[in-house]
Design a protein that fits this description.
single chain; 397 residues; mainly alpha; two-stranded antiparallel ribbon; 4 strands; 70% helix; 2% strand; globular
Amino acid sequence: MNNSAQFPASPPQIIPLCFAGAAAAGLLGLAYANGSARLVLATFIGLFAGIALYHASFGFTSAWQRFASERRGAGLRAQILLILLTCAITFPLLAAGGIFGQPVHGSIAPFGIAAAFGAFLFGIGMHMGGSCASGTLFTMGGGNTRMLATLAGFVAGSLVATAHLAFWRSLPGFAPLSIVEKYGAVGSYALTALLLGSLFIYSRRREIRHHGELERDDRQFNLIRGPWPKLWGCYALVFVSIATLLVLSRPWGITSAFALWGAKLGRAAGLPIDGWQYWANRQAWLNQPVWMDSTSVMNFGIVVGALAAAALAGRFSPTFRLTSRELAIALIAGMLMGYGARLAYGCNIGAYLGGVISGSLHGWGWLLFGFLGLSVSASLASRLKVRLNRHAEPSES
């Protein structure tokens, strides 16, 4: 079912829209008060990302689930196009080391047992919770109160993982590998395009073979009120990815902020956070206010931007009627994703998207094991006839 069918056209909602405007002004005010042009720009990027994610229903989880269970690949192909368009810009920038005196650095990380297991756990959590990291933020901002529990689990799982990372990092793995450094911008892009292009063609043929034709989206599109076609969402997130790299000198990430929030809460509760190895070299980051952390600021912007988009669409209608079972599933799903993200150097945005557009091996490993975790969870749920995510992120079709 498409998202517009679930939500009939309604006039914009003034009160939520005013609240979103006030929240956006507050975020921008804090960034400006700190004298940081980077944080101001990061706030704008986050706000735009929230609007784009909501209006385009650009959910990584829903796209993977539909490809795995329904053999529909429009969402997956949109992700592939997003990566290919972004790589066309990021690979030359990374090969050059920056532009106009502004340095840029890729997200390059090792990949081994810990990262594979973390991505696998994240994939299970994606299926259980019906969301990913970005999906949790934009659907929560859009009024899905179940995602509050998922976010709480995310934060808790991220914190617990930082206590165990010394063990996980000691397990065998491959050293960091950048194909941009190895093959240059042109060679690495050709290799990436070959791999993703093959997956793009396979998804089309698979969908046509099982359904007779490719799925069409016949909704009426509106730039301000939504919904947006997948192509608009794809272009918007290309902009978000490249703008983040230029403004913050590194790829877009989300879940490191969840670990920071968890650590601050844990320290306030009396946990010996400062003695954990993960935080030993991150004291400056831990001691600064969250509104001075660029990843946190972008995350807040995503939530507020999605709230504004939902209000413009007339769809902001939060409900707090959750069963204890739904609450437990949301918490567990969030904890799995939070724990897995720390092991795997990030989530679907930071590790998968950020890794692949950086030419890093770990991005491809994350894709493989993350999708495997989601597929295994979906298969088990289907066999056991278990319905997990009634309040999942919106379907992309």
